[in-house]
UniProtKB/TrEMBL annotation, chains A, B:
Residues 3-57 form the HTH lacI-type domain. This is DNA-binding LacI/PurR family transcriptional regulator. It comes from Kribbella solani. SUPFAM superfamilies: lambda repressor-like DNA-binding domains, Periplasmic binding protein-like I. InterPro entries: HTH_LacI, LacI/GalR-like_sensor, Lambda_DNA-bd_dom_sf, Peripla_BP_I.
DNA sequence: CTGAAAGCGCTTACAG
DNA sequence: CTGAAAGCGCTTACAG
């Protein structure tokens, strides 16, 4: 039915081994032999069977990317970059949507893929560090995000404390004094970014007001919109808001527009992620812009290095470069 | 090294066949045997090797989704829905980013996946119908989008002519008379949506003005922004714009904001896709909203039906339900 | 229900 | 360079 290696060999008049050598770019093939084999491959439309290859070699050249949701712009953009970075290296990426559910994340770690993948890039949301430690994937794993890896795994992440410090300090430098934060709850992202936020307030001689720190229930536009409504209902509303991601900021901007408030005159807004929406929103959104291409490229490179067998015990922790992009939402 | 089926069999004190039967939910297993086997699986942490299974069965329970780019909101949202729909049925989705490049699309069709996948859901951009016809994937294929399938393949798509007619007619009903269109160029999407646009103008007794039909170079925000700038530079600028997707519309809104024009008072804007950004933009975006979950579920169901062996010759063409969501960009 | 065996399509020592 | 053969881990007739 499907053409096999042996069919190609027969047609080219060479051994199976030689065809395999050609396909895998092994040395010691004369140009003439290579030509013959390639002609036979083309004539038969032969494609190697990856299941068979993977079964035999124990390597598939597939890696998994496990993210909470691919419909969310930050993860969509990141997934696109990681796919590209992998493709450049001849690797295919399988994307797992965990929806942030512990069970789904555990499935990923348990090797749900049935030994098909060679390694995994994992952006955890629900899984606690303790569980991560016990996760015996048996495959190399690179962590994304602020969740501390406990020195167990390689990790690639923005220095969120410093970035949040910068974002908040920017608002301080504008003369704002009642600076709120949206997204402090739940995840470790919230905790880490709040740390930088508070640090900046302290450095500016401001005390943080618990009433201005909103947790919300998630990191999406509706959560930002709802949190902003709470802030506006305060006896003394804020004159600036640092949202812990752009989606929250976009939701907050929507609430401010509905309330007829001017941005940045009445309330200045800063986000985090630099997703494309923020660059076209009215007003355009000031934000922390991590270098996503750098992130993707280094995460893939790190993983492939481990897959290739580099197992030294010094687990690497890479810090993603970022910039603060000042746009209309803070600079009228 | 890795535990195998035979290890489980040995530990459970049963035959390899019995373990396989349990794993694959075959009948005629006593509860007691099943328990023993499941205990052994749990104790050993056994996971079936999908490469071996796929090699033997000729089926992997993997399908591919080939889209131009996963970083683009519409495709990101659609990909998320398709992943979910597939997961519900025990199927895993591999996502291929073609970047709309002919070579990449051809690779997909040539079965680059090396017979790993059971079928493919394909959203073509560059590949012409003629090439599609000749594509001998050897696997079931479901087409997405307006590109006519020529009766060759199953297809799931919005009735873009009708939807564009509705969008344009909505602008007419607002009393607008100089209604521009952005995105008429290049792709078959542009051609089809222009058809509906012109039809609506004609039905309203308006003639279409070539100066108001902008092709642009793509379907992203910058393209929409640039096209809108061209329209504003016209001696007689439009009083409404139908953008052939939301990204174009969001770019156009940005240009209008920069120009100090009011939406919808000066210019009304309609998009197509209903991506989440449009629901939070200021102003919120009126748009054609296809039922993405319906689309995803039916595309997956159609493909799995073919994979299961339904090969009747009546190729199916499913029409995705949609609504016109009227928001601030047309209803002040 | 069980057990022994073949075979899916590769890669890889092995002997030449 | 070639050729013959083993084996990756499954599933599946086959005989019982």
């Amino acid at each position: 039915m499907a053409t096999r290696l042996s069919d190609v060999a027969a047609r080219a008049g060479v051994s199976v081994k030689t065809v395999s050598n050609v396909i895998n770019d092994y040395p010691h093939i004369t140009a003439r032999t290579r030509e013959k084999v390639e002609a036979a491959i083309a004539a038969l439309g032969y494609r190697p069977n990856v299941s068979a290859r993977s079964l035999r070699k124990g390597r598939s050249d597939f890696i998994a990317l496990a993210i909470p949701e691919m419909g969310s712009p930050y993860f969509a953009e990141l997934g696109a970059e990681i796919s590209r970075a992998a493709k450049r290296r001849g690797i295919t990426v399988l994307i797992d949507q965990t929806e942030g559910e512990p069970a789904a994340e555990q499935l990923v770690l348990d090797g749900m893929r049935g030994q098909l993948i060679d390694g995994i890039i994992f952006s955890p949301l629900a899984t606690a560090p303790a569980n991560l430690t016990s996760a015996d994937t048996g495959k190399p794993l690179v962590l994304l995000g602020e969740r501390p890896a406990g020195g167990q795994f390689d990790r690639v992440a923005v220095d969120s404390v410093q970035a949040s410090y910068d974002a908040t300090t920017h608002l301080v430098s504008l003369g704002r004094r009642r600076i709120a934060a949206i997204g402090v709850g739940g995840t470790s992202t919230g905790a880490v970014r709040r740390k930088g936020y508070r640090k900046a307030l302290k450095a500016a001689g401001l005390t943080h007001d618990p009433a201005l720190e909103l947790a919300g229930t998630g990191y999406h536009r509706p959560d930002g919109a709802a949190s902003m409504r709470e802030l506006l209902a305060l006896p003394e509303p804020p004159d600036a808001v640092f949202c812990f991601n752009d989606l929250l900021a976009l939701g907050a901007l929507r609430t401010l527009a509905d309330a007829g408030l001017r941005v940045p005159e009445d309330v200045a807004v800063v986000g985090f992620d630099d997703i494309e929406d923020g660059r076209y929103h009215s007003p355009t959104l000031t934000t922390i812009s991590p270098d996503k291409e750098w992130l993707a490229d280094n995460a893939v490179a790190l993983l492939l290095d481990r897959i290739a067998g580099n197992n030294d015990d010094t687990h690497r922790d890479l810090t993603v470069p970022y910039t603060l992009e000042i746009r209309e939402s803070t600079a009228g």
